[in-house]
Amino acid sequence: ACPDLRTHVRVTPEGRTELARLRMNLAASVQPATAGAARSEAAGNGAGNNGGEAGAKGAGKRLRHSSDFRSVQWHGVDYTFTATQAAIVKQLWEAYENGTPDVGGDTLLVNAESDTRRMADVFKKHPAWGSMIVEGTTKGTYRLAPGPA
């Protein structure tokens, strides 16, 4: 008989973050491929595309994106982005996957070749702002919001 390892192993905060990321990736990879059907059904029921978000919030709780990040599903919510917004989301996504979620706003804007100097202006009135894309732990940084516990 093997004792419960949780009582014998200490996990650092960084390790907990990595474990949470791995759990989310595992959960996303074992979900049945029904999110597309749910998205189509939601669109047919008047959910529509309001300039950034489409589909139902409960549609699979998956994390995925198109190759150019213009279309993203973040914890079951579908978003679409402009080219500049997508370049920023790509950077945030890569930082999230790397376990280093906070990225400076200036870095994001410069790397996305944005003409705008403020993140809030790039995502003005976009449904992802404040829900998927949130302020980081230090001033001037941003990150992808954690999923539901």
Task: Give the % helix.
Answer: 25-40%
Give the overall shape, derived from the CA principal axes.
globular
- In round numbers, the mean pLDDT is 75
Q: Class by helix and strand content?
A: alpha+beta
* Percentage of residues in DSSP E strands: 5-15%
In total, the number of strands is: 7
- Termini Cα gap: 31 Å
Number of helices: 5
Uncertain regions spanning at least 5 consecutive residues: 4-8, 27-60
Largest sheet: 4 strands, antiparallel
The helix-strand sequence is HHEEEEHEHHEE
Radius of gyration: 17 Å
Order of strands in the sheet with most strands: 1-4-3-2
What does this protein look like?
The chain has 149 residues and is an alpha+beta fold. 37% of the residues lie in helices and 15% in strands. It is built from five helices and seven strands; from the N terminus they run ααββββαβααββ. It has helices at residues 13-30, 35-44, 83-98, 105-111, 119-122; strands at 53-54, 63-65, 71-74, 77-80, 103-104, 133-135, 141-144. The protein has a four-stranded antiparallel β-sheet. A three-stranded antiparallel β-sheet has the order 5-7-6. The radius of gyration is 17 Å and the shape is globular. The two termini are 31 Å apart.
